[in-house]
Amino acid sequence: MESRLNKPLVLAMVAVALILGVLVGMSTGIVGRIFGGPSPKTIATASLESMRAQNRLIAFVARYVSVTTSSTSQFGFSAKRTLILPGDVRYELDLSKLQSKDVAWDGDTKTLKVQLPEVEIAGPDVDLASAQEYGEGGVLSTLTNANQQLDSANRAKAVADLRKQAQGPVQMRLAHEAARAAIERSFAMPLVAAGFKDAKVIARFPTEGTEKPSYLDLSTPYEEAIKEAERRRAAEGRK
Predict the structure, then answer these.
(1) Cβ of 90: how many Cβ atoms within 10 Å?
(2) What is the pLDDT of residue 21?
(3) For residues 85 and 65, is the Cβ–Cβ distance under 8 A?
(4) 175 versus 228: which is more confidently predicted?
(5) Does a cis peptide bond (omega within 30 degrees of 0) precede residue 8?
(6) 85 within 8 A of 63, measured Cβ to Cβ
(7) How far is Cα of residue 97 from the mean position of the Cα atoms in its chain?
(8) pLDDT for residue 170 is more than 80
């Protein structure tokens, strides 16, 4: 009778001891050595989900300066205006586009291969506060709104020129290198921390190896770029 009453208590004590043992083993690494720690695939999957949660990665930011000149003639008179306009362009990766099929672990070479989405160009964020506009209009500027028309034309051409500069081969190569390095580091650090010190991470773009680097153009339309710059400038003036 006494043994039957104590048996459930003994079983409960054993269960508690096993749970405590597992917890202690996890904290000391014993469980990992007996049952095997997390696999590179598991770690890579966790890293992938973490990066997808970040949504976007700004891999590279560059500032360009555009110098444009516009001229017009009416009634035998002429006017000319020049604009110097700086602007920032962002080179981004949409991490939400990364899928499980884009990440593959090669156990033989201990290499994690990552297929990256295309670089996206966002902007330009023009800096009207640093813009310089000058020129000569004389009589035509006095009689008409030639200056306003020329300034508007210059701004449109300047925004287009900033985009063109941002899409140059050297700039795209730098953006790709920065994005690749950031992704490789993000995947490599958890692997090394888990003990896979020999693991390598190689990230590649779909157009890797082609003569012309690819990108997705998310540039801001001219009117929106100027309006956003004017809003920023007005907000800074109120501070």
Answers:
(1) 19
(2) 46
(3) yes
(4) 175
(5) no
(6) no
(7) 12
(8) yes
- Does residue 5 sit within a domain? no
- Does the global pTM surpass 0.85? no
Q: Is residue 2 part of a domain?
A: no
Q: What is the pLDDT of residues 22-57, one digit of tens each?
A: 344 434 444 344 445 689 999 999 999 999 998 899
24 domain residue, yes or no: no
- Residue 74 belongs to what domain range? 36-238
Share of the chain above pLDDT 90, in %: 50
Calpha distance 125→146 (Å, rounded): 26
| Residue 20 included in any domain | no
Give CA torsion, residues 217, 223, 229, 234, to 10 deg: -160
Distance CA 69, CA 79 (A): 11
DSSP secondary structure string for all residues of 49-99? HHHHHH-EEEEEEEEEEEEEEEEEEETTEEEEEEEEEEEEEEEEEEGGG--
Mean per-residue pLDDT over the chain, rounded: 80
DSSP bridge partners of 216: 120
Integer CA distances (angstroms), 14 to 3, 18, 24, in order:
16, 6, 15
Total number of domains constituting the chain: 1
